[in-house]
């Protein structure tokens, strides 16, 4: 705000979007390779979503979630039960966004433990550097220290375990395969805290903060087994990973695991309206059905808003009709392949990783030693400016190590995918010149292997 209050400030105000492109108030055009904020999965300009919202607002603009169900809420809850990995008889607790969904899931897990007779089960295990929202409960389990600092005392009981960060893993980065030590550390943490004090575990299938860190094969299954063994509620945060972002309806489904609770938002409406949900396995939801004392005492005024539910139904219909979950798998694999071809020899690129249309390029001082770029002055600001000046909106982030993060709309045409790869490669070359790791005069030529067509819809 301090910058924007300057009389010299010229903020970028986005005023229009179509497909995977957006325009600012001065007519400048950008490829949005972050889908707003990992949200606009079906792309911009989807009139049928706006029409569904308008029709609902004319018919009935608001129904109190504390008093009555609404038809869009009922229909959406049934649809979520049909596609979720928590099971076909799941129930949805609808909220106004992702942080709200996490709050609901945490409260539900603690309430369930009390109903089971475990009043001391109030701790929640999350992963280091993980992001789960900024409301007080969600903030408390957040693993990003810089975001938590300054708001204490936080909700007590949050504990943070190592993340499965293969590229720089303290246990097995130099090994040929994952040793599973980070999983063992989670179990050791539970034993140290006392299983009788742990209510829930929360984690993303692909961790956003740190740069699209994919859980290794078998990781989530082991977490499920650990939770079952110790009676811990297993919450999978799919606020970003849901609705096609990593290739299936939910990342947990792509990885073959059934959570107790899924939290979701963002792609649920593709950002066209605020909405979130805690989708709950039947066995857990049933604990809150019965007499007055059995209720789940929680709610938000705009949770499950009728217009937002209408938007979600229209959005899900688009994802189904256009098979965008499969498109995410195909185009995501294509983009990662092309990024590796374009960057594989660059001295400042450590790794290209991701899943579906959720990927990151990790930047290093020296790829042979994996030396960190820590200490580079205003590097993220410089990277963002370099990318934007070439017509690309994405994320330059250093909450773990510096990464360029990409999460375009699932409808991204191949021509825009190729343009994204070319821009990222050009900016990485500029970074190399800035760091002195490549010659200062450098001509960007064609990649060693020309891009091959990918069999996805235009």
From the N-terminal CA to the C-terminal CA, the straight-line distance is 40 Å
What can be said about the biggest beta sheet?
7 strands, mixed
Radius of gyration computed on alpha carbons: 22 Å
Strand arrangement across the biggest beta sheet:
4-12-11-10-7-5-6
Would you mind describing this structure in some detail?
The protein is α/β, with parallel strands linked by helices and 458 residues long. It has two domains: 14-32 and 323-435, Aspartate Aminotransferase, domain 1, CATH 3.90.1150.10; 47-321, 3-Layer(aba) Sandwich (Aspartate Aminotransferase, domain 2). The chain is built from 14 helices and 17 strands. It has helices spanning 35-38, 47-59, 71-83, 98-115, 136-141, 145-148, 181-193, 219-230, 251-254, 282-285, 306-321, 324-343, 379-389, 414-435; strands at 14-18, 21-24, 29-32, 91-95, 123-127, 158-161, 198-203, 206-207, 213-214, 233-237, 261-264, 276-280, 349-354, 359-363, 392-393, 395-397, 403-406. Strand 10 (233-237), helix 9 and strand 11 (261-264) form a beta-alpha-beta unit. Helix 2 packs antiparallel against helix 11, helix 3 (71-83) runs parallel beside helix 11 (306-321) and helix 12 packs parallel to helix 14 (414-435).
How would you summarize what this structure contains?
By secondary structure, the chain is α/β, with parallel strands linked by helices.
């Amino acid at each position: 705000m301090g910058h924007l209050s300057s009389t010299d400030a010229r903020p970028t105000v986005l005023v229009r979007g179509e497909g995977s492109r957006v325009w600012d108030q001065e007519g400048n055009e950008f490829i949005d390779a972050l889908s707003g904020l990992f949200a606009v999965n079906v792309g911009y300009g989807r009139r049928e979503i706006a029409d569904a919202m308008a029709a609902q607002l004319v018919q009935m603009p608001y129904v109190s979630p504390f008093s009555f169900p609404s038809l869009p809420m009922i229909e959406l809850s049934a649809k979520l039960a049909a596609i979720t990995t928590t099971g076909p008889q799941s129930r949805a607790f609808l909220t106004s966004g992702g942080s709200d969904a996490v709050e609901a899931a945490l409260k539900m897990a603690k309430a369930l433990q009390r109903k089971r007779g475990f009043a001391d089960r109030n701790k929640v295990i999350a992963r280091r550097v993980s992001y789960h929202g900024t409301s007080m409960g969600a903030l408390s389990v957040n693993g990003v220290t810089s975001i938590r600092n300054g708001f204490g005392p936080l909700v007590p009981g949050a504990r943070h375990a190592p993340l499965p960060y293969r590229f720089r893993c303290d246990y097995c980065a130099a090994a040929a395969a994952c040793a599973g030590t980070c999983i063992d550390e989670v179990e050791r943490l539970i034993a140290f805290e006392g299983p009788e004090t742990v209510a829930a575990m929360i984690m993303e299938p692909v961790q956003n903060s740190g740069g699209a860190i994919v859980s290794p094969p078998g990781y989530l299954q082991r977490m499920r087994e650990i939770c079952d063994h110790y009676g811990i509620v297993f919450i999978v945060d799919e606020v970003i990973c849901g609705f096609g972002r990593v290739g299936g309806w939910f990342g947990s489904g792509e990885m073959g695991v059934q959570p107790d609770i899924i939290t979701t938002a963002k792609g649920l409406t593709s950002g066209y309206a605020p909405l979130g949900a805690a989708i709950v396995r039947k066995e857990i939801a049933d604990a809150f059905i019965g007499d007055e004392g059995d209720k789940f005492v929680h709610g938000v005024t705009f949770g499950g808003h009728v217009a937002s539910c209408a938007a979600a139904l229209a959005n899900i219909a688009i994802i189904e009709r256009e098979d965008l979950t499969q498109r995410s798998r195909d185009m995501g694999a294509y983009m990662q392949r092309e990024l590796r071809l374009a960057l594989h020899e660059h001295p400042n690129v450590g790794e290209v990783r991701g899943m579906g249309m959720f990927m990151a390029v990790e930047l290093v001082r020296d790829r042979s030693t994996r030396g960190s770029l820590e200490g580079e002055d205003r590097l993220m600001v410089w990277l963002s400016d370099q990318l934007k000046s070439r017509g690309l909106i994405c994320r330059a982030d250093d909450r773990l190590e510096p990464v360029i993060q990409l999460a375009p709309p699932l409808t991204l045409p191949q021509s825009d995918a190729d343009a994204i790869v070319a821009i990222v490669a050009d900016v990485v070359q500029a970074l190399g010149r800035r760091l002195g790791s490549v010659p200062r005069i450098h001509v960007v030529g064609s990649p060693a292997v020309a891009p091959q067509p990918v069999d996805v819809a235009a």
